[in-house]
Amino acid sequence: MTFNPLEEKGMPLDKQLRNWHQIVAKPYKKQHVDCYTRTRQILMNGIEVEGWGFKHQFNRFMTDIDQEDRANISRLGRIENQQQMTCNWLCPADQSVLETTLGYEQVAVDLTAWLAQNEPDKYVKETFNFGLLEDFDHLYRYAQFAYMTEGVEPNDIVKDQTDVIVGRPTQHHHNCNGLRLRKHYDKNTASPQTKVNILTVLSGEQQTHNFYAEHGFMYGDHVLRETYAEIKDVEEEHVTMYESLIDPSETMLEKALLHEFTEVCNYYTCLEDEVDEEIKKYWEIFLDMELGHLQIVADLFKKYEKRDPEEVIGSEIIIPCRFKSQKAYVQKVLEKEVQKRLAPNGEYYNSFDEIPKDWASYPVQERVAEISAPSENCINLVEYYHDRDVVEASENLKNKEVGLLEQGLQTIAVAHNTVSPKKLQEMIDNHEERETEKEKII
Ligand SMILES: [Fe+2]
Ligand SMILES: [Fe+2]
Ligand SMILES: [Fe+2]
Ligand SMILES: [Fe+2]
């Protein structure tokens, strides 16, 4: 059955304002929540933050629009703001910043993997795969701190749905900003799926950046604070990368239409997939609200641009956030692309041999890690707690870890505190020896 959002009336705007009791929902229980309920909650917060912020940008920059229409955009922004509070505050007070952080990176890994496999544009797919391996490594770095600082094991959060092991090393994610810029799609030929996919992941990445910016200082451990700073900076690069895929010549009204459509599609998917009956009610109400938003913006688009909204968003719903385990896909990309790097003009270097000595990202990487790379220090530190790094993966993937590190590490602009493949192998061997010793005692 096909569902055409443009044919739905949705909830009228004058019915959408809610009271404080309705806005602040009952949080989920961190011990019992399905990990993908948490990822939906995290993603929808990011989508609402983007939806809210965009309305403000719209009214700041949009000229030639009637005052009453501008007022309606402002009213919509108020509703996005209320929805954002509900989504974000489903997060319980006893879920630590690091636990929530593992949730954020699980969103990034499993969402981007889903999008890559459902992306019709080959180049956009390649960009998703590239970003995927960076967030995959962030999950691994943060998992070390969750264990050292709070005794949290990765599967307490990711529930065995997402592997936690070294990816493209975080110290190599720092690039010259110009290199992060990718080639943008053509608004006249790109499919609605491509547009929604990009806006979805962009909203998630932007919120990840904001979360680290607002919470990284909440720990006393200096290495952890530095790691938040380092990874937050990569999320800034991810925002730059994903937004550069969007055609900058889209009009503000075209963008407004895409924002509401993206919200509709994401809530529609959440509603289809949700296992928590209480939270499902919010997805249902918010889908109805977004269908109402879409109607309003579609009318503005017709009024001012004299075009059919279907030209931009098509006539069918899109599924942008089907959260499910993506281990096999991620492993495939990891083994094939961990050594990939950004090249000028939106191209990619597939291996280190292709990277010229004057690559614009080398000086950036040398500068930021001239004292040390915090993301490497966390692996050095965890040796004292656990003999080796904290990893959750199949035996098959675990056995490839040292090889993956070897494949992903550069030979130039490497921080002096880097855990080398040889060092990692020693850590793994020591751990095995000590585990055997322990068994003898028990
Ligand atoms: Fe919204
Ligand atoms: Fe990340
Ligand atoms: Fe990211
Ligand atoms: Fe909306």
Compact description:
The protein is mainly α. It has helices spanning about 20-25, 35-60, 65-90, 95-115, 120-150, 155-160, 175-180, 190-215, 220-245, 250-275, 275-305, 310-315, 325-335, 360-370, 375-385, 395-400, 400-410, 420-440, and strands at about 340, 350. Strand 1 (about 340) and strand 2 (about 350) form a beta hairpin.
Describe this structure in words.
This protein has 442 residues and is mainly alpha-helical. It has one domain (5-330). It has 18 helices and 2 strands. It has helices at 20-23, 35-61, 67-88, 97-117, 122-150, 154-158, 177-180, 192-215, 222-243, 252-273, 277-305, 310-313, 327-337, 361-368, 374-386, 395-398, 401-408, 421-441, and strands spanning 341-342, 348-349. It has a two-stranded antiparallel sheet. α2 crosses α8. The longest helix has 29 residues, at 122-150. The protein starts with 19 loop residues before the first helix and ends with a helix. The chain binds fe (ii) ion (FE2) (4 copies).
